[in-house]
Amino acid sequence: MRPTIFIDGEAGTTGLQIRQRLELRSDIELVTIDPEKRKDQVARSNLLNGADIVVLCLPDNAARESVGLITNPAVKVLDASSEHRTTEGWTFGFPEMSPVQRTEIAKSKRVSNPGCWSTGVIALLRPLVNAGVLSADYPVSVSGFSGYSGGGNSMIAEFEDETNSAYTDVPCRIYGLEMQHKHLPEIQKYAGLREPPLFAPSVGRYRQGMIVDVPISLSRLVARVSPADIHATLLKAYEGQSFVQVIPQKQSVGLKFLAPEGLNGTNDLHIYVFGTSASRHVRLVALLDNLGKGASGQAVQNLNIMMGLPDGTGLES
Hints:
Helix content is 33%, strand content 20%. It is α/β, with parallel strands linked by helices. Strands 8-9-7-10-13-12-11 form a seven-stranded mixed sheet. A six-stranded parallel sheet has the order 2-1-3-4-6-5, sandwiched between helices.
């Protein structure tokens, strides 16, 4: 019997992307709600308790409400909101984060899909903190660019409104100026930092794709390490992984620029270490699709693991 999956919030950006990735598969059964009954608590409750796996693609408060409606102990939940990313009892859905993470996801009934920025930052920093290369006290600074789809339907509407000159005339903008971005708690927790990083995100006038950029001053590290040492640590951490790849240093040295749209349409994440033996600083860079490994692609990867299937089922580029 095919497992049944209900996407609660399939009309949103991430929900639509997940549905598109799943709807052509013959190994699962997607169940859906009548659009006229989306606000009908009884109808939603029946679907939430009747599916094998529920995917929540909702605002945080609505995701919490949906979880509260689930009374069937057999139902597994994958939450794509930020509501449960640091909640006790929920498994963080970044399969490559540690050698045991896939096992934890596979046996969990409550999995929280990471955010796009946090996926990139954690991928860059966690192996270095775990190896003692980077101190948990290091003053981490994070910047980069994301496509405007990362801001959901409201930001998409802003950037695609041709009558709105405030946005059509601006190639990019910074945001998160209140310094309280929702990704900070998960970044701090899963990167192993004692303090949240200084986070300075930007959004560009393009739909999807992102670059996460973390500069490191080698002179401020506890141990004397080179860019090659940092590269080797990251390479070892992701050895054998299909979707997270550490790009060879020779290839990085030859690059003149890096475009954020380079991995669009994939579930891949590429890690670059920029810096030579003479460098006093390195730039750690993650390239990914904010709607792929940063959202719906990673959600499908987690669903596959939760169903006991190979990670890459239905995720071929």
